[in-house]
């Protein structure tokens, strides 16, 4: 058994009387892509927010490579190898595409506080950032302002920024949401590529069941903030409770699950 | 290009205007003999530094501060107090300047760490409160600051009006201590401006822009935004103090109305917005236009008013006493027609 790179123990958060995430204990191993599924409002994104630090938990602990990071600042978690792409695209709108990625590269390479060098003199960071754009097929849009990109391209940039951080833990929150059909394969290939690196742990929140089937090594089902099921895709998909709680409640548009 | 840190004006018209302005300021003592013109030129230089330093936090970091004149004042008071209490020489000037920079840095760090965590509007309120308290303190501690009257002091010999560098006039100009202080300020302004241009185009400067654009994401990719914001605040405060030091050197006087008043704070804000936020070059354009308008609008109006003396209502409206009204109208129009400031609009036009 490989030691978990990331684990939550009884992780809980309450908003007033509402328990959004309820005592979720779960471990994630490197070399594994875990899909987190569940109906809308199941607490998937909240669970992500707790792990990456945007929300402070009401109880429980989060361990990164065995170290307690429950109270650690968001920026510190990022530098310790916890990387996150957001469901609602979160970019630096009035900066160019390459600048968005280069800023992340600069954070990882640790020269953000350099005051007296010009940013253009850090050529390596720019080259590395360009390489990330190649991986998401966004090189053509290199010098466009992030705000002026199409929705699909913004999603790609979101992913490119995560690649630039090169974290140990990749957290993707519906990376293909709102993308056109022909754009999706780029992201799926990319996920497959990251999967090949056995040192990386991937967490993926996803609604599209065909994506889940093709990528997941393991599926975790959340429902009403509680961990409902956890196991190999084939086993989890067949559980009646999952059918009832998750698949049954899917809106017809996302009915790809039945294909 | 490396002297401009790779950030050129990016508009031919703007480049031409800036070259003309800098040349004009460089030859001002030779071209215009009147003391009033030289005074305006020197103030333009000081305000270029002050407005650029304000753009550093307002335009680049997206922080609204009302304490900028406080740091301007600390710079000027540092020199004034040192020069009036010590032997008025270079040592006093250096001591006053270094002390002013240190006080500015410490104060800006404290304000930043205590209040930059909170929302922008709260930070603005806190800086307003601190600045008001500081102004009151400056006028109350009259043993040190001269109270409302301020302090007049002497400069080192070569900056005194009676000093002559050459026996004979050069190109028709007596190169006296005033001219030398002017050129000292000119050189300092150029150096400080280029330094700020470097800072905004450094990796640090880009992080500030990223934080302004989306502080949530900046934090998520590993930047401790509070550290960057506080450092930006400290740098801007120290540059503002530098402007204050230059102001004191030029005026050989400092009081609450010359550096601390809220009116100056509003002027800085207007100059930054009119010039173009987040461009730094806007400081040059904004400060020059504002200072020239402030100095010469009354003259122009007196002329117009005299010429229209026979038309009853019109001559009243353009009476020199109404100059503030017209200044206000000019600013409303410029903000309305150039929402991105003059530099922003020129760059947009050049892009098309």
If you consult CATH, what is the topology of chain B? ABC transporter involved in vitamin B12 uptake, BtuC
Q: Give the helix level of chain B as a range of percent.
A: over 70%
Report the CATH C-level class of chain B.
Answer: Mainly Alpha
Uncertain segments of chain B are none
Strand content of chain A: 15-25%
For the largest sheet of chain B, list the strands in their spatial order.
1-2
CATH homology group of the largest domain in chain A: P-loop containing nucleotide triphosphate hydrolases
Shape of chain B: globular
Write the CATH architecture name of chain B. Orthogonal Bundle
Q: Count the DSSP helices of chain B.
A: 16
What does this structure look like?
The complex is a heterodimer of chains A (259) and B (352). Helix content of chain A is 34%, strand content 23%. Chain A has helices spanning 44-52, 74-79, 97-109, 123-135, 151-165, 184-196, 209-215, 233-238, 240-245, and strands at 6-15, 18-28, 33-37, 59-64, 67-68, 82-85, 169-173, 201-205, 218-223, 226-231. In chain A, helix 6 (184-196) links the parallel strand 7 and strand 8. In chain A, helix 3 packs across helix 4 (123-135), helix 3 (97-109) packs parallel to helix 5 (151-165) and helix 4 (123-135) packs across helix 5 (151-165). Chain B has a single domain, classed as ABC transporter involved in vitamin B12 uptake, BtuC (Orthogonal Bundle), CATH 1.10.3470. Chain B has helices at 12-31, 35-60, 68-85, 90-115, 120-140, 142-145, 177-200, 203-213, 215-220, 225-251, 256-259, 262-275, 281-307, 312-317, 323-337, 341-351, and strands at residues 151-152, 253-254. Chain B is mostly helical.
């Amino acid at each position: 058994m490989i030691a978990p790179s990331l684990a939550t123990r009884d992780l809980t958060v309450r908003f007033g009387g509402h328990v959004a995430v309820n005592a979720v204990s779960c471990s994630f191993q490197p070399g594994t892509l875990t899909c987190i599924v569940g109906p809308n409002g199941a607490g998937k994104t909240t669970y992500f927010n707790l792990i990456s630090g945007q929300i402070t938990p009401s109880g429980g602990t989060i361990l990164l490579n065995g170290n307690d990071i429950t109270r650690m600042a968001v920026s510190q978690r990022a530098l310790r190898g916890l990387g996150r792409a957001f469901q609602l695209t979160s970019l630096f709108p009035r900066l160019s595409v390459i600048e968005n990625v280069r800023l992340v590269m600069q954070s990882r390479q640790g020269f953000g506080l350099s005051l007296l060098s010009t940013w253009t003199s850090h050529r390596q960071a720019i080259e590395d950032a360009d390489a990330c754009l190649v991986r998401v097929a966004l090189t053509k849009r290199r010098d466009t302002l992030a705000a002026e990109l199409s929705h699909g391209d913004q999603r790609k940039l979101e992913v490119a920024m995560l690649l630039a951080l090169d974290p140990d833990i990749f957290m993707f929150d519906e990376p293909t949401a709102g993308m056109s059909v022909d754009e999706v394969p780029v992201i799926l290939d990319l996920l497959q590529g990251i999967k090949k690196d056995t040192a990386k742990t991937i967490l993926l929140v996803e609604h599209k069941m065909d994506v889940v089937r093709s990528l997941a090594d393991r599926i975790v089902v959340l429902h009403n903030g509680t961990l409902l099921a956890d196991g190999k895709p084939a086993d989890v998909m067949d559980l009646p409770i999952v059918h009832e709680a998750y698949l049954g409640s899917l809106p017809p548009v996302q009915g790809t699950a039945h294909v | 290009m490396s002297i401009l840190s790779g950030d050129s004006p990016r508009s031919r018209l703007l480049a031409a205007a800036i070259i003309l302005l800098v040349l004009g300021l460089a030859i001002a003592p030779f071209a215009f003999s009147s003391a009033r013109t030289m005074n305006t030129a020197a103030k333009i230089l000081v305000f270029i530094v002050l407005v650029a330093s304000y753009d550093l936090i307002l335009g680049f970091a997206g922080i609204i501060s009302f304490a900028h004149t406080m740091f301007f004042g600390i710079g000027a008071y540092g020199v004034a107090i040192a020069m009036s209490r010590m032997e008025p020489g270079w040592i006093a000037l250096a001591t006053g300047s270094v002390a002013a920079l240190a006080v500015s840095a410490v104060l800006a760090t404290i304000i930043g760490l205590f209040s930059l965590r909170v929302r922008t509007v709260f930070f603005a309120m806190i800086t307003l409160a601190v600045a008001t308290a500081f102004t009151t303190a400056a006028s109350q501690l009259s043993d040190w600051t001269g109270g409302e009257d301020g302090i007049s002091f002497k400069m080192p010999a070569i900056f005194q009006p009676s000093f002559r560098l050459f026996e004979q006039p050069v190109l028709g100009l007596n190169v006296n201590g005033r001219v030398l202080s002017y050129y000292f300020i000119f050189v300092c302004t150029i150096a400080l401006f280029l330094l700020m241009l470097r800072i905004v185009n450094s990796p640090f400067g880009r992080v500030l822009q990223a934080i302004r654009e989306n502080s949530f994401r900046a934090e998520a990719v590993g930047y401790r935004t509070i550290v960057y914001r506080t450092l930006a605040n400290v740098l801007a405060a120290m540059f503002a103090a530098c402007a204050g030091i230059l102001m004191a050197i030029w005026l050989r006087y400092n009081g609450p109305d010359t550096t601390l008043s809220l009116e100056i704070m509003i002027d800085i804000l207007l100059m930054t917005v009119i010039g173009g936020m987040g461009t730094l070059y806007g400081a040059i354009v904004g400060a020059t236009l504002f200072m020239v308008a402030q100095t010469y609008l009354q003259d122009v109006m007196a002329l117009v008013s005299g010429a229209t003396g026979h038309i009853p209502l019109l001559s009243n409206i353009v009476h020199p006493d109404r100059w503030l009204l017209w200044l206000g109208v000019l600013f409303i129009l410029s903000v309305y027609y150039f929402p991105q400031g003059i530099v922003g609009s020129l760059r947009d036009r050049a892009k098309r």
